[in-house]
Amino acid sequence: MKISLITPAPKQSLSGNRKTASRWATLLRQLGHDVTIGEEWHDEKAELLMAVHAWRSADSVARFRAAHPDGKVAVLLAGTDIYRFQHSHPAATLRSMELADALVCLHDLVHRDIPKRFGKKLHIIHQSASPLPKSVTPSRRHFDVCVVGHLRDEKDSLRTAYAARDLPEQSRIRVLHLGRAHNADWEARARAEMRINPRYHWLDEVPRWRVRRLMAQSRAMVLSSVMEGGANVISEAVAGGLPVIASDISGSIGLLGEDYAGYYPVEDTAGLTRALTRIEAEPKFLAQLKRQCRAREKLFTPARERRALKKLLDGLVP
User: Fold this and answer.
1) Where in the chain is the domain with CATH 3.40.50.2000?
2) What is the mean pLDDT of residues 124-142?
3) Band of the pLDDT at 118, cuts 50, 70, 90?
4) In angstroms, how far is CA 303 from the centroid of its own chain?
5) Measuring CA to CA, how many Å separate 260 from each of 220, 244, 253, 288, 294?
6) Does 14 have pLDDT greater than 60?
7) CATH class of this structure's domain 143-299
8) What is the mean pLDDT of residues 37-57?
9) Beta partners for 52?
10) Largest CA distance in the chain
11) Is 2-127+301-316 a domain of CATH 3.90.79.10?
């Protein structure tokens, strides 16, 4: 099948949307399909349009549907689609959802957060990841905790830094933050935080190999987001045996499970400080999180993601 896969993230971007599109293109080619990736649909011949992001790809979805009434459209709902744009920009976002033959979501609880009329279109595809490097030895001097994500409002990006300020003086926790600042204000805030908070180290955007190496070096990862559509960094952490501390949002609960012990109340600095203190001071708690993450590993394998994509396409074009 000839597939046009579009994502608003440019080719050089390290954003989650671009990573998802690139990984899907690889998996779909493994299934024998002819896939092209672009930022918009420009009248290329295709039997199927796969659009990452309902709102940002709305023009492409509408144009493809008008040009190919019998063609098939699958739309991946990003976190901002689900938790922001369907409310702030409902006309374009909901129009894409209406025009789509299938809606793809990345975590198990999306059905709670979108209009019920779209429930029959939903397909859950968990993002896969490969194991982290095993040759990396964690620091003995520091108890490293990583934060992986660009500095932006949706990520509540400095929450871990704020929580680290209030750790006991004897704590060895060091926060390693990897990700590009969304704008000059976020960069200034991160640099100001480093000046007053010796536990916080913002490393800016780094190559993927270094992200994976620093994750392997860490004792735990914090995902402090206020909204997520199903973060691939959770898949990477779980696949690599790295325990996760996460804000209690649907996008994380839908990946880690409702009984996972590593949640804290979203935007609650004191709650995150308590969680950080526990993972360092209570080996049994850290071991529990590791066990619970291992129990979820099977959800995030490339083979499982490829099977889910095949099932999606088989349902659209038998």
Assistant:
1) 2-127+301-316, 143-299
2) 92
3) very high
4) 19
5) 15, 10, 8, 9, 12
6) no
7) alpha beta
8) 93
9) 76
10) 65
11) no
Q: pLDDT band for 243, please (50, 70, 90 cuts).
A: very high
Residues 6+ apart with CB under 8 A from 3: 28, 33, 34, 35, 36, 46, 47, 48, 49, 50
Dist CA 254 CA 177 (whole Å): 24
> What DSSP letter does each residue of 248-309 carry, written as one string?
S-HHHHHHH-TT-S-EE-TT-HHHHHHHHHHHHH-HHHHHHHHHHHHTTGGGG-HHHHHHHH
- Helices vs strands, H then E, count in the chain: 13, 12
pLDDT band at 317 (very low <50, low <70, confident <90, very high): confident
Residue the block writes with tokens 């908070």: 197
Question: Looking at residues 166-195, what average pLDDT do you find?
Answer: 97
Residue with token string 């860490």: 218
Other C-beta atoms closer than 10 Å to the C-beta of 13 total 17
Question: CA-CA distance, 197 to 65, in Å (whole number)?
Answer: 52
The number of angstroms, rounded, from the C-alpha of 138 to the middle of its chain's C-alpha atoms is 24
SS (H, E, C) 129-186: CCCCCCCCCCCCCCEEEEEECCECHHHCCCHHHHHHHCCCCCCCEEEEEECCECCHHH
Q: Using the 8-state DSSP alphabet, how is residue 236 labeled? A: H
- What does pTM read for this prediction? 0.93
Cβ pair 104, 74 in contact under 8 A: yes
Per the listing, tokens 């006991």 go with: 168
